[in-house]
Model the fold of this input.
Amino acid sequence: MKITKDNIFYSFCGKNEPVIRVNAPVNLDFETMDCFGNQLRTPEDTMEELDWDRVNPATGPVYVNGAEPGDALKVTINSIKLNEKGTVCCLNDEGTLGKIIEGSHTRVTPVSDGFAHYEAKNGLRIDIPLKPMIGVIGVAPAEGLDINTGTPGKHGGNMDNTMIGEGVTLYFPVAVEGALFGFGDLHAVMGDGEIGVTGLEIPADVNVTIDVVKAKAPEYPVLETDEYLAVIVSKPTIDEACLRATELMQSMIAERTDLDLPDIVMLMSLLGNLQICQIVDPEKTVRFVFPKKYIPSLSF
Ligand code: CA
Ligand code: ZN
Done:
């Protein structure tokens, strides 16, 4: 089954009408637009003409039968097929360096053979290895909340986490019946922090498998690979996000082992990595990443 890019939404909300109702586990194809709603696709398309009401479209939402508040929605990203070109921008007052940028600037960048072929204004060409990832992905937040797709939170959303790529499994806290899952805002490549306010923004076709894990809702999205377990926390400041991310990883390890608290803290300090996802969205996102190989019971 394929959910096409005609089925989009701009805020994660329990009131959204689902485009499809599915039984889990289910394998689905999604067609996604880039974060600009595919409006900046040629060098002539400028930010000034951008319709901001069409920014950050997510494809969906999908209603998963049997997913109830308190469950975890398990989403595995099987494959990402990128479009042949992406767009990167910077503009006045956006990102950490926006104060020194005048106007807006875009580079439409071809993508082929595993690389983004970036060309600077002075003619410098750099072939950047692709690292496809999903910027916006999540479920509807709790009843009464309506969170635009540009903002991250407990429900997921605009986390802009470079780890959210092929082969990764995510666990989201289901907060409304059916979960109402969706995603968009693919990046061909992006650096941690996304300091200029965009990655290489690109339309894509993505295949995912969706399942429900009963009564295991995490507080914030959890990411798992064969090698790592990570928690992804968004808060108004990086400091608050870092604090909560370490607290949540500590509880995850405590629940899955009989290690003493001081050992958990010391092992987190030695083996865990606290990393910035993005610092440019309305809330800031970090991840705490812990390797699984030393503690066999450490899986979601
Ligand atoms: Ca984004
Ligand atoms: Zn993006």
Notes: The chain is about 10% helix and 40% strand. The pocket of zinc ion (ligand 2) is lined by residues 35, 135, 185, 187, 198-199, 201 (CB under 6 Å). Residues 236 and 283 are 5 Å apart (CA to CA). The chain has a mean pLDDT of 97.
